[in-house]
Design a protein that fits this description.
By secondary structure, this protein is an alpha/beta fold. It has 2 domains: 117 residues, NAD(P)-binding Rossmann-like Domain (Rossmann fold, 3-Layer(aba) Sandwich), CATH 3.40.50.720; 168 residues, Rossmann fold, CATH 3.40.50. 34% of the residues lie in helices and 16% in strands. It is built from 11 helices and 12 strands. The chain has a 7-stranded parallel sheet with strand order 8-7-6-9-10-11-12, with helices on both faces.
Length: 308
């Protein structure tokens, strides 16, 4: 491990990610063994832009989550040389600004695949069988059974055919679905039929989103184009779905249910929390112990390699 840019002192590494080491001590142990000075997130939650700047101001590297790493942050963090993202998405990192300032950026695209795919599958099954609704009824001392639907034999549309989309397709195989897929490029080894987004929405009983980019993908028109009684799953990126329009589609009964793990603004406190037919989780896609440990270990190794 090389010394920091100030001439001989330890390299400083900020942990701006909201939780680190909860899945096991190995990532922190590896940082300590490398002889770096660790600057920990003092808040235990996702940091604001100002809080990130304060934490990272004197750091040479940062192990990051989804907090904003913007040009305004970089302007205050003149020592910063490496951003090592725990996870896949880079929407929170101003990549162009990082490149201009010579800041290396890396992520952990493989470690989260199984965790994200299994969570999406769990969301599908829960929405189809109304598990969260029946759980709430029972906790309220009401013995209410709700008629659900099988996943077996359904038409499932997978939007985004990268690592996670492919893994979802593999997990679905025992349910013998009709698979439709959509991506911005033609994918050679997808097991199902690749179609336009409009066709996928109109034909699918379940639509699950696994795209890597930002920006809204499913707005009011796309929701209206979905098959009546369908289920929408978004365990990919916040902001992909117009949450207000989704609320209307669920309230009016056009969609039977939805599962969201990600939101345009997090923590989410909006009106979807009031609906029984939507399952909500707090951006927990990577929060499987095995996946989280692997992601953090990869993030540490990526950072140490770039700092050396």
């Amino acid at each position: 491990m090389s010394s920091s840019a100030d001439g001989g002192s330890k390299a400083r590494v900020a942990l701006s990610v909201s939780s680190f080491g909860a899945a096991g001590p190995e990532p922190l142990d590896e940082l300590r063994s490398a002889g770096v000075e660790i600057l920990e997130n003092p808040h235990g939650r996702k940091l604001s832009e100002d809080e990130v700047a304060e934490l990272v101001r004197d750091a040479d590297g940062v192990i990051a989550g989804t907090e904003p790493l913007t040009e305004a942050v970089f302007e205050q963090c003149t020592r910063l040389r490496v951003i090592s993202r725990v996870g896949v998405g880079m929407d929170n990192v101003d990549l162009a600004a990082a490149e201009r300032r010579g800041i290396a950026v890396c992520n952990t695209p493989d470690a989260v695949t199984d965790a994200a795919a299994e969570l999406a599958l769990g969301g599908m099954l829960s929405a189809l069988r109304h598990l969260s609704e029946m759980d709430a009824e029972l906790r309220a001392r009401r013995w209410t059974r709700k008629m659900g639907a099988l996943l077996r034999g359904k038409t499932v549309g997978i939007v985004g055919l990268g690592r996670v989309g492919h893994r979802v397709a593999a997990l679905l195989a025992p349910f013998e679905p009709r698979l439709l897929g959509h991506d911005v490029v033609q994918v050679e080894d997808f097991a199902g039929e690749q179609v336009t987004l409009d066709e996928l929405l109109s034909r699918s009983d379940v639509v699950t989103l696994h795209v890597s980019g930002g920006g809204q993908l499913i707005g009011r028109d796309e929701l209206a184009a979905m098959k009546p009684g369908a289920v929408l799953v978004n365990a990919a990126r916040g902001g992909l779905v117009d949450e207000e329009a989704l609320h209307e589609a669920l309230t009016e009964g056009h969609l039977a249910g939805a599962y969201l793990d990600v939101f345009a603004k997090e923590p989410y406190e909006g009106p979807l929390t009031e609906l029984p037919n939507v399952l909500l989780t707090p951006h927990a896609g990577s929060y499987a112990r095995e996946a989280r440990a692997l992601m953090e270990q990869e993030a540490v190794r990526n950072l140490l390699e770039k700092l050396s």
